[in-house]
Amino acid sequence: MIIVMSDSHGERDVIKAIKATYETSASVIIHCGDSELPASDDIWQGISVVKGNCDFDDDFSETAVLNADNQRFFVTHGHLFGVNWGLSDLVAAAHQKAAKIAFFGHLHTPIATVEDGVLCLNPGSVAQPRGQYNIKMYAKIDITQTHYKISYRDLQHQEIPNLQFELLRA
Ligand SMILES: [Mn+2]
């Protein structure tokens, strides 16, 4: 099981609460950037985090490639790959890293779609949600033999209606 969050924008306690909930059960916990925290903060012990456009600590990486649950993930904030205008650059970067899953943030809105064989997943924002779903949220992903089971959760860790997906693995 993979936990992905993003765009906490200074809300450190939210990261702490999600980490505490899943640190013993998740294979990996990911933060897709715009934490506005220092890279040296001990909150990052046990979390894989990248640099967002609102992060100014150069000790964060712009991208990360992770392996967990027999999958390889490409992680980035998204602004460097033009996600405001489409996912093709993100998908190309994932292909380049031989990753079948790309996690990104920046848009503050949930997206879960398979494009050209790559699951592109935006977990929404745990602090400043935008768009149709005005709910602070993160995503939980279980990978089965055949499917990606994606569950968006609110900050009480409850499933958000209409944001539960089973997508066929490419
Ligand atoms: Mn942001």
SSE layout:
Elements: E1 2-5, H1 12-22, E2 28-31, E3 48-49, E4 63-68, E5 71-76, H2 88-96, E6 101-103, E7 110-115, E8 118-123, E9 137-143, E10 147-154, E11 159-168
Parallel strand pairs: 1-2, 2-3, 5-6, 6-8
Antiparallel strand pairs: 1-9, 4-5, 7-8, 9-10, 10-11
Manganese (II) ion binds at residues 7, 9, 34, 52, 54, 106, 108.
Provide a brief overview of the structure.
The protein has 170 residues and is mainly β.
Question: Your description of this structure?
Answer:
- Helix content is 12%, strand content 36%.
- The chain has helices at 12-22, 88-96, and strands at residues 2-5, 28-31, 48-49, 63-68, 71-76, 101-103, 110-115, 118-123, 137-143, 147-154, 159-168.
- Helix 2 links the parallel strand 5 (71-76) and strand 6 (101-103).
- It starts with a strand and ends with a strand.
- Manganese (II) ion binds at residues 7, 9, 34, 52, 54, 106, 108.
- Residues 7, 9, 34, 52, 54, 106, 108 line the site of manganese (II) ion.
- Average predicted local confidence, pLDDT: 97
CATH homologous superfamily, by name? Metallo-dependent phosphatases
User: How many individual β-strands?
Assistant: 11
Structural class: mainly beta
